Amino acid sequence: MFEKVLIANRGEIALRIHRACHEMGISTVAVHSTADADAMHVRLADESVCIGPPPSSKSYLNIPAILSSATLTGADAIHPGVGFLSENARFAEMVEEHGLAFIGPSSEHIAMMGDKVQAKVAAKELGLPVVPGSEGAVTSYEEARAIAKDAGYPVLIKASAGGGGRGMKVANSESELESAYRMARNEAKAAFGNDEVYLEKYLQKPRHIEVQILADGKGGAVHMGERDCSLQRRHQKVLEEALSPALNAEERHRIGETARQAILKMGYHSAGTLEFLYEDGEFFFIEMNTRLQVEHPISEAITGIDLVREQIRVAAGHTLPFTQEDITFSGHAVECRINAEHPKTFAPSPGLIKEYHPPGGLGVRVDSAIFGGYRVPPHYDSLIAKLIVHGQTRNECLMRLRRALEEMVIEGIDTTLPLHRDLVNDPDVINGDYDIHWLEHWMGERG
Ligand code: ADP
Fold first, then answer.
1. Residue 7 CB coordination number (10 Å)
2. Treating both helix axes as pointing N-terminal to C-terminal, what angle do 141-151 and 174-192 enclose, rounded to 10 degrees?
3. Ligand 1, from 128, 138, 235: best to mutate by most atoms within 8 Å of Cβ?
């Protein structure tokens, strides 16, 4: 097993990884920008190295600085966390070239799934159902028009290099297609430096259902059930639940087993997520995330499996200590993403946290790196806390979540806590009756 792991990330996810390491007797190295010198992930780590100024391009994305910090501190492995370098195939490769273990999948698998056009082709070969649309990239407007006609309107133009919902444009009819096509290409070029796009049928009322998988690359592979991440704003997840209130046992087994077989066929190792849209009993693959995800704790809550620990064990060459038969789903879990943003305008709200009181009690977990007196820097993602609540039933989980949200105090800055308090009292959310467009409609209605 590793003796020392460098965590190439910040905030709550860096703490999450630190916790798994310390529970395994592994010491940790934090890296940080000058803006994060006093951050909790730095305070709790055994060692820390400053890797650059506040902008992430000069610090958390600074590969030479991260690799030399690992060498300098004698780390055996690097965990990239979520975001930043976690899906950078070249980084994974360089970590290994430096004689260190990368706590994640192979660079080939990261590269394969990082390009969404290539990922869709691979998914089809692996036997996964995909959204109808173009076979590969669309290179001209004329081609887009022919494919759209075939698939039927509305259609969605998506960026091959896409992420975070950027570079996606809907065309409801042929008259909208040309401008959607051009806008998607321009947006993709600006955001990712790559204007390759592809076309998909736009599903009108799907749910976002994703399957958590874990594999050792040596024949061991499990799925940990699904997460329903349909409550989204601008294609960004806001609240997630596991299991999905929309699936029945047969559908759950079908999609879980399909995902498991696919990653076995790939020879994948580490944790990963296969994302699907689900509509009228059918699943359509949209992408695979070859990393840990922000919402992983709800899958941990219902299975009792520590995903980061298993990622570390697999990276150190171990096989999974359980098989699919050993995995049972217990109760229900929900995660609320609490952002430093205005709850209605979503304007970023960095600044000083004057008071912080996290909720507690049975079934309540808070993953956060904030504290009273902490100043949220303006340079990074606005996620400051994740509230994860588990209950024996969905109803118990929601009752507990309401109670936990009542208890939680973050003062001094705006947060999305009030949004969550309203959301968990809404009848549609209580009934589990929502699709990927529900949240934006709901927000529009309440003004
Ligand atoms: P990104 O990598 O940018 O997050 P995804 O492909 O994961 O892009 O899609 C993000 C979200 O966009 C999905 O969760 C869903 O809400 C919406 N979406 C993607 N593809 C479609 C589609 N074909 N029809 C309808 N909605 C879609």
1. 26
2. 120
3. 235
Query: Three-state SS for 22?
Result: helix
Closest by Cα among 51, 81, 83, 76 to 66: 51
Q: Partners of 270 in the beta sheet?
A: 215
pLDDT > 70: percent of the chain: 100
3-state helix, strand, coil in the chain (%, to 5): 35, 25, 35
The domain covering 132-201 belongs, at the CATH homologous superfamily level, to: ATP-grasp fold, A domain (3.30.1490.20)
Q: Quickly name the fold that domain 4-101 has.
A: Rossmann fold (3.40.50)
CA of 263 to the centre of ligand 1 (A): 21
Question: What's the confidence (pLDDT) of residue 353?
Answer: 98
- Cα-Cα-Cα-Cα torsion 335, 340, 344, 345, nearest 10 degrees, comes to -130
Residues with CB under 6 A from ligand 1: 131, 156, 162-165, 200, 202-203, 206, 208, 232, 235, 275, 277, 286-287, 436
User: Which residue numbers in the chain have pLDDT < 50?
Assistant: none
Instruction: Write down the catalytic residue from 16, 291, 337, 365.
Output: 291
Q: How far is the CA of 71 from the centre of ligand 1 (A)?
A: 39
Tell me the domain boundaries of the chain.
Answer: 4-101, 132-201, 207-446
Q: So what's the pLDDT on residue 436?
A: 97
Listed residue (291, 271, 289) closest to 213, CA to CA: 271
Tell me which H or E stretch contains 1.
Answer: none
Q: Do domains 4-101 and 207-446 have the same CATH topology?
A: no
d(CA 223, CA 283) in angstroms, rounded, equals 16
- Cα(14) to ligand 1 centroid in Å equals 27
Given this structure, which CATH class describes domain 207-446?
alpha beta
- Please write the tens of the pLDDT for every residue from 381-394: 999 999 999 999 99
Burial category of 132 from C-beta neighbours within 10 Å (exposed 0-12, middle 13-18, buried 19 and up): middle
Structure tokens at 335: 């995660």
Half-sphere exposure of 136 (CA within 13 A, CB side): 3
Report the chain's C-alpha Rg in angstroms.
Answer: 21
Name the residue with the closest Cα to ligand 1, atom 12: 235
257 CA → ligand 1 middle, Å: 22
**Is 291 assigned a catalytic role?**
yes
Q: Whole-angstrom Cα distance, residue 258 to residue 33? A: 42
pLDDT at 163: 79
* Protein residue closest via CA to atom 22 of ligand 1: 202
DSSP 8-state code for residue 395:
H
